[in-house]
Amino acid sequence: MTDGIPRKQDLVRRHGLIEMVEHWAVALSGIMLIVTGLLELPVGRRYYITEIPGFSWADDFFVTLSLHYAAAIVFVAVAFFHLFYHGLRGDGGLIPRRGDLKASIAVIKSFFGKGEEPPFGKYLPEQRLAYMGMAALIVLLVLSGLVKTYMNLLNPQLSRPIALTATWIHNGAFFLFVLAFVAHIAALLIKPNRPLLRGMFTGYVGLDYARKRHPLWMDERMKKDRKILPGDRIEGTIHSTGSSSVEKRGEQPTGRMTDQHEGGTGAMILEREYLPYASGALEPTISGRTVDFHYGKHHAQYEANANKLIAGSGLEEEPLEIILKTIVDDPSKRALFNNAAQLWNHTFYWKCLTPGGGGRPGGKMLELITASFGGFDRFREAFHAAAMGRFGSGWAWLVMLEGKLDIMTTADADTPVARGIKALLTVDVWEHAYYLDYQNRRADYLTGVMDNLVNWDFALEQLEK
Amino acid sequence: MPVLSRRHFLRAAASLAALTGISGAPSFAADGPRRGDLATLIDCTLCDGCVDHAVALCVAACRERALERIPDPEQPIPKLFPRGQIEDWSERKDVLDRLTPYTQIYVQRADVGEGDDRRTVYLPRRCMHCDNPPCATICPFTANHKYPNGAVVIDDDLCFGGAKCRDVCPWGIPQRQSGLGIYLNILPTLAGNGVMFKCDLCYDRLMKQRVPLCVEACPRGAMIIGLRRDIFNEAERRAARTGGRLYGNTENGGTGTIYLSPVPFEDINAVLAKGPGRPHLDRVERRLARASILEASVLMAPVAGMGAGIAAAVAALKQRGKDNRDGGGCD
User: Fold this and answer.
1) Chain A to chain B, count of Cβ pairs less than 8 Å apart?
2) pTM
3) Which residues pair with B144 in a beta bridge?
4) Range of the domain at A353
């Protein structure tokens, strides 16, 4: 099942029909296996279980074993189905990644009010770890259970070391499986996780929840829905909201897009564009964690604030650049300007970076830089010095000013585009852009970006617009 | 039916042993049945219950080994929570008229028929060593296991004494001694209740090419042990020759013990003293056979799941390819 475009108001499809059938088949047969498995210890009579109405069979081991087999048929078949179905489809969303352990600890701490959750993709890091743990136990249970069944049906005289090994793997994994099951249920009692419960019953989770907790997942969905693949050049498409959309292709990138994929929910007028690469693609210069926070939290927050503030401003119908130019000197619209400008700046920034970029540009760009600064190395030094000299938060820019390239910096959210100046390149020198990776070492961050990430092709494209 | 004289029997047994390796004699050939599947024939046309002895010799030999091997429980034996009876035979080791941890074989006596037809049949009873023993299948710790030589053996180091094996045994053979075993080291009041004991076909002796003590002790050669096929053939042959009946060869899906009786087992069963530790002679169906279809389905489930998974994935991938092609031009 693919994650289709949500048709229901305010809901996002999280699980397809096949995944839900898989989950509930494993869950119900698993519970049955736990109950009948526990009754394989002779506890039915001794612990009064046979006296529970409907459980009079609990001490008849032929019955409990038959029920155990019946549940195992479902459990084993679904386990193998899961392995082959998702394996062949290449579904890897639940396979643990590097850093999941650390991230899980952060998430668990946040449950106790310590720190903030990082932005998530479709699955939480501890969900991936829990999945792996559960999967490993199921593999052990299924394989050892098959050996035991084979012995019982076809070969009662199986060598004892094999029989003992299978039995004790089965018993040990069973014990851990019961613990894992209890932990799984307990996790759903934790408040931030509760919205997921509805997902497993209906297949849908709330849109608000998904936006807030799984921004990276939502971004991915957006990309998929628009059928643009990572690495494609981003069209700076401007739509006016409403039915008669006017498209102007090849404009400066803008955060503005119609809310075509949200089914009219939560009037999102200004939107950041998606990341043109995977969040880990800028490593080692900029870590995936930094990008996850920077794009998934900071950039998202500017977007959310800008949308909140634009309501009722009379500017709802305007493209983002026009908005910026209109209100840049309006003290009463300071907050809207700051958030809208940061929305634009960041979208621009992400495109100024590219994996495998950096170093010396070629062709026309190099000619222009040489003509304007007296050589690439002198440009680098000057740009570095300017970016280092920007006190506090802000941006360093390469701009086109009066027919010449020039370097400028802006404070906080301020942006050349609001002043009618054509920007070719920017580097974010807010601490949030580099603090996780470099702490106070802004110079190392700048050097890394210049050496490894600057997207000179993008800069040239801006020039040619 | 004439009872073979001992001399007569020994001659017959010797020639039989020479032919087939079946033996009433105290040892196997060097490469004998240790590896093969063994069976025992208990010929009740020969057994006279050792009426001349205070204790039947098979019982006495077996008990001596049991008394040596089973340590006395430490008193007091822990009480069970929330309920459950402890079973302590350590003060009643001399009980001989039923199976106990210390009496792993005993002789049943049945007076069958009236008047001139009246005859007494003696049956030494012990574990049947089933072909597919439910007591081993159902043991949660594989403390109970059927070995390649056919012996079904309880590992008294690993047994918790939960008595599942006795519950599922059609004859209720294994007997519990509380206050012994591994459960004492874990949660003695909450889990386990001792160690289960039953005939292990003198597994240690079999491994040394020696026949079980009961077989060795029998003064009339009423018990013979050998390769299963040979013993089954011999049982059929004797039954055909004497008009006797067989019990055990088809019981519970087949066992490693065959009784040959001169009178119908239904008649013996009718007059037998039965109850805990006193096994019946009912015809026994293998209850777990009814679960065979489930067991087979469990073994087939991986194939079914794999097939369905591959089919669904191929369908999904096809659909995905189609979507990509269709979607390519209209963005």
Assistant:
1) 147
2) 0.69
3) B154
4) 226-241+249-465
